[in-house]
Structures are given as structure tokens and as C-alpha cells.
Amino acid sequence: MKKLSVVLAFFICMHFTAFSQYSVSGKVTDLNGNVLTGANVIITNISNNYGVNTDVSGNYSIKFPKNGTYILKVSFLGFEDFRDTLKIKADQTLDIKLKQGEILADEVVISAIKAKGNMPVTHTEISKEKLREQNMGQDLPYLMALTPSLVTTSDAGGGVGYTNFRIRGTDMNRINITINGIPLNDAESHCVYWVDLPDIASSVENLQIQRGVGTSTQGGGAFGATINLQTLSLNKNPYAEISSTTGSFNTFKNSVSFGTGLLNNHFSVDGRLSKISSDGFIDRASSNLKSFYLSGAYYNVNTLLKFIVSSGFEETYQAWQGVPKAKLKNDKEGMLNYLAVQTSWNEIDGGKADSLNLFNSNARTYNMYTYKNQVDHYNQDHYQLLFSHSFSKTLNFNLALHLTRGKGYYEEYKPRQGFEDYGLENVVIENDTITETNLIRRKWLDNYFYGTTGSLQYSGKNLEIILGGGWNKYDGDHYGRIIWAQYMTTAAMDYQYYFNNGKKTDFNSFLKINYRINNKLSLFGDAQIRKISQTINGLDDDYRDITQSHNFTFFNPKGGFNYAISDKQSFYGYAGIAHREPNRDNFVDADPSKPVPVPERLLDYELGYSYKSVGSQFGVNFYYMDYDNQLVLTGMINDVGNAIMTNVKSSYRTGVELTAAIQFTDFLGWNINATYSQNRINNFTEYIDNYDTWIQDEVFHKTTKLAFSPEIVLGSSFDLNIKKVNIILNSKYVGEQFIDNTSNNDRKLDAYLVNDLKFIRSFKLKSYCSIDLMVNINNILNEEYETNAWVYQYNEGGVNKAIDGYFPQAGRNYQAGLILRF
After folding, report:
1. 22-30 vs 92-93, strand pairing mode
2. pLDDT at residue 16, rounded to an integer
3. How buried is 631 (Cβ within 10 angstroms: 0-12 exposed, 13-18 middle, 19+ buried)?
4. What is the model's pTM?
């Protein structure tokens, strides 16, 4: 608590370090004199883009740090932006009239689900420019890494390939993610696999992260956060861009982008083609990623029609097992035990080659798999048809149709597999009966996800009402095939040994009301009804019949207020409820002799304060997330010995998030955020396999810490601009975190601090061409750290033992890139 007090006092004091001299005030209206409430007024040529919103009378007042020349930008949805260069020497009055846009803006596509204006929702925005500044080939989670309460991890150790993140300790299958308002989470696992969307950041216009329950959106329940992505909006001028980067671990990213600009005042086409490859920091953890994005749009003053097709292909070598702690600690006895257990589990042969791989490989880059084609191979195509129509200045309609098509497999070598486990007969050679064989199998996923989303939005002077909803359908086949076996049976090669199908229908509707009572107080209300129908039919890979069906109806109300203390200060309060149904694995792996997993419920409370001035910004947000029936790993197993997730009645996350930005001088700025939290389960029972008694031992914990929930997370970015060279120092500190729910110090990830240094030089060759040169030195202090892990513990011979896997991240590494724009 002492640490928190020091950090909090520092943040509170920061906004007193800058002061303003002069202000510009006025009124923003349309050409007919109608006031525009909530218009954005910002100064664009200072690092923190300081700005204000107009009040209910259309008035604004914005302060400037000192004498000088500034660019003022005023924007309002549906109107053309206003820009003016101002020479500030004294207070000024400037009334601004905005002209209605000649075409409907792309932003209307996701306006129904974004938090905006004075909504009392804790959120962070990342612009296209900021994403571009960070985009050197790593997956999107790494481009969001410095946002509050977010922790990233990479299987391959370098941010390319399989990556993941948590927000407030909440994993990705509880985070709602949309792209252009269309659900992106997999309907069965609830996850988003960023490896299926290579270089998606190059096609993103803006990104918003809402922490907590947030506002109602499409798709699954938001149990820790919501992320809204909007793809590229209209660039009225034609452009072309070539981007190329290279880096450590033979990492390469090359992409080509283009846009036609606005043709005949109505049409535009934008496209991108990307290829990313990397050997990975971990041995053999290679990635081969390809993607494209293509959109065609029609615009007029009242209507927008856009068709988008994008595709991603990935082939990544599996690095899913991690590095055993015994290997990291050079514990030879522990490594021998690890080798024996993995051999008994039939993950590896356990012979000389596996022994040499374990004992001779680098302690931080060891990969258990050595089969040359131990890969994940998947292709995913996205089709979106977006339609928006403005009936009047106050009434807008959005409709989207979408289809996602995915198909692929992961291939693996499996030693000593019993024929009966695959529904095959034993092989008889002369007088010998062979009951098992080494084989190579592929597990396939072949799925379709399609549906429609829509909204009707009324935006008056003081009142905004949004009625929205969606209907989405998932249909996915799961099956496995043997493509090679050491001993052949009567079954033909490419034998299909299991098959099951999953179907899921998800319907939701929501109503949002944002009412501005006066210049100081606004109220927000939001209610959503969500209905889910899910069926699973067929046999799983262990020949269990997993046929089942489930139906759920959820009601998710939310509400809050925002109060403006002054033109610089405001505070807000929020409360919201979210529900989340168990995912496919929760149902499939459940023990049939025990209760079926039930939905989780979250009651989220948020209370925040913000201060904004031209030289500094500060925010503090307190949250309490109260869970009912949260699904967690307890060590409990099902009837065939597989780990299952179990509902725990009472658990919570509570904390404080601090954000600040300060402009020390014209060339030096600092952005920083900090989260201090407590994350607990009450009355938790831990289950441990006992190999001596062949039953599970039980250990009761009155209160224990939730896994993967560090109590302290800090992010910092210093931005120094000297003679057109931008130097950025990014730092991330993540406190210690436990890898299971037992608070056992033998099973935790140590705290780490990672610093990255970035250099950017931008210049123009000619009036029609610009170049950005970028160099990154990542992990400049060569920190050795791990960001993720798994553990299986058991009792044997009266001793508690564990098999585990930790995921080390790359030490000091380098990237260099060039972006050429026309």
C-alpha cells in the first residue's frame, strides 16, 4: 500500500507542473447556426493532442501553453473537419461554422458500440499513427502493450506467431473483440487468434479498448474488456505505401498498400498485401504468415456502402509446451523426471534424440518438439458488407452482413499409439500381434461463421438513443485423420478416426441512452438481452460421445453518470452486469458424473476522475469486479483424467488505474500508466492427483490469489524529438504472478521490467514522397523473464511433484524498417 500511495501522490502532483497562458474561445455551429454539442476541438501539433468538447450551447474554450503558432482542428461526425493555423499572442475569440460533409464518414460504422464523448466508460484510444509507429511485424497485442492493465505473452518469444494478452488479469476468451462492429471472437473457444490475422494493424484506422464490462456490443460477453477495431476509412487522395522491416531471429515483414482516393466523388478502393516470417526466439518456433486486405466503397452525402474482403494464412511451428523449470534452473534430476513423464504421456519417444535435445539445447530456447512438420496450418477469410444511411442530421442507420470461413489443422507426431485408441484393429505380422504404432495425425477444424448486425441511432442536442442488435450463426466440424503410421492396418491411409460438429446461434439486442442534462451532468443507460443456443454432436478424439445442447438467456444492464467539475476536471461513476456462457472445452471436458458448468456473472463498478490541460493530463479509475460462478482451474479432473475448469462461487478483482501525460517542453513528453490490484478467490478447494492412492487429494484455501493476475503493472513512454529524430523509450513493468490458483511461491512468474528503445527519422524526398526510417532495440537491458506458464502437480511417494512449462521471452534483439509513402 505504501508503494501505491507514493505512485498516486506522484500522479496527482503531475498536472501542476504545466500552466497555460492564453485561451481561444467561441462557439461551434453548422452553416445554419445550429449549435453542435460535443464537437471535438483539439490542438494537433503538440504531442498529447490536447482537446476539449463543446458544451450543450456549442461553446468551447481551449488554452495554449505559451506564445507560438498552433494548428487547431475541429471535428464533428457528419461534418467536414475545420483546421486553422493560429498565432497565439493573447486571448482570442473564434466562432467556427462546420460544413456538412459531402459524403457519409466511415466512423458511423462502429459509432453504436464505441464509448465516446461523455460516456462514463473507462477506455483508451490508439490511433492509426500510433499503431504505425509500433508496427514492425509483431502481432497486435504487442502494439497495445503500453495501455493500462495489459500484459502480453508470446509462445515463440518474439511477438510473432501465437501471441496472447490479459487485461486486469482477464484472459482473452473473456475479452469481447469486434472489427467494424462484427464479432471476431471464435464462437466455440471465445478466443481471437491474432496469428490468423497477420499484419491486421496495417489496415486499422483506430482501436478502442474499454476496460471492465463497458458498453453493449456484438458477440460474447465482455468479462474484462472490450476491443473495437475499425478498418481503414476514406483517404480522399490517392496513395501508395511500401513497408519493409527486418530483425533478429530472421524476422522479415514486407507489405504493400494502396488507395485510389475518392473517384468521381463517390468511389474508393483500398488494398494491402503482407508477408511476415520469423524463426522465433524459441528453437524451431518459426512463423510463415501471409495476408491481404481489399475494400471497395461507395459514398454520397447520406449513404455509405462498403465491401471488405481480407484473408490470413499462418503456418507456425508448435511451441506450446514451453520450457520446464528444471531446464531453466539446470536441475538435471528434474529434467530426467520431465523426460520420463513426457515419454509416459506419449508426447515424445524419450530416446537418445529427445535426451540430447533436452540436455544440449539452450536453457531459454528449448522446444520439446523435433518432428520437422509439427505445425499449425490455418487459413481464415473474412467477408463484410457494410451499409450506413443518414435519414437526417439526427437519425442514422447501420447494417452489416458478414461471413468468416476458416479451415486448417495442426499436425503432430505421436509415438506408441494403441490401435484401439483410434478404432483400428491390431496388426498381425506372421505370429506377432502389434498393438501400437508411431503415427502422424492431423486434427482439423473446418468452420463457417456468418450473420448480421445493425443499429438505429438518434443524436439530438442533449439526447442520444441507440437501438442495436445482431444475429450470428456458427457451424464447425472437428475431425482427426492419420496421415502416416509405422505399422499399417486394413484401414486406408488418411483414415478419419473421430468427427464431431458444433453449432451455435447467438442473438442480441441492446438499447443505449445518453442524456446530457446540462453542461455539467450527463446520464448513461444501457440494457442488452442476449440469447444463445448451442449444440455439439458426435465423438471426441478419445471416443467419448459428447453430444449435448445448451440454451441461455442473459440480461445485461449498465448505467452511469459523468459530471464536469470544470472545463478541466470531471469524474464519472459506472455499474454494469455481464454474463458469459461456458466455452466448448468447458462443456466437452466436463465430468458427466458432476454438475454441468454454469454461466459466469460479473458485476462491475467503476469510479473515475480526469484532469486535462494543454500541458498535462491525469486520470484515476477505481474498479471492483465481483464474479459469481467464475470458471477456473482447480486441479479437478474428469472421468478420463483430463483437467477441467470448475465454477467457483465467489471471486473478485479490485484495483486502481492511473494514467498521466505531461509535456515538459516542445520536444519532450511523457506518458505513464500504473495499475495496482488485488485479485482473489474465496473458499477455494484445490485438487491434486495422488499416484499412491489413485484418488485426488483436497486442499482448502480460505482466500487465494487468482492466477496470472499481477498486482502491479506499469507502462511508460518517453518521447524526445531532436532535429527531426524521434527517440522513444518504452518501459513495461509487470509484478509477480502465480501460474495456478494456489498462491504457491514454487509456481509463479517473477516480476520483470523490460525497456525498448525506438528511433524514428521522417523526411520528404520530394513533395510527393516521404520516408520513415525506424530502428528498434528491444529489451535493451537483456532482461531474462517469462510471461506465461502451465503446471500439472501430483503427489507420489508422499512427495508433491510438478511437470510444467514456462515461456521465456527474447533477450536483447533488434529491428529496422523503412516505410516509403507516395
Report:
1. parallel
2. 44
3. buried
4. 0.91
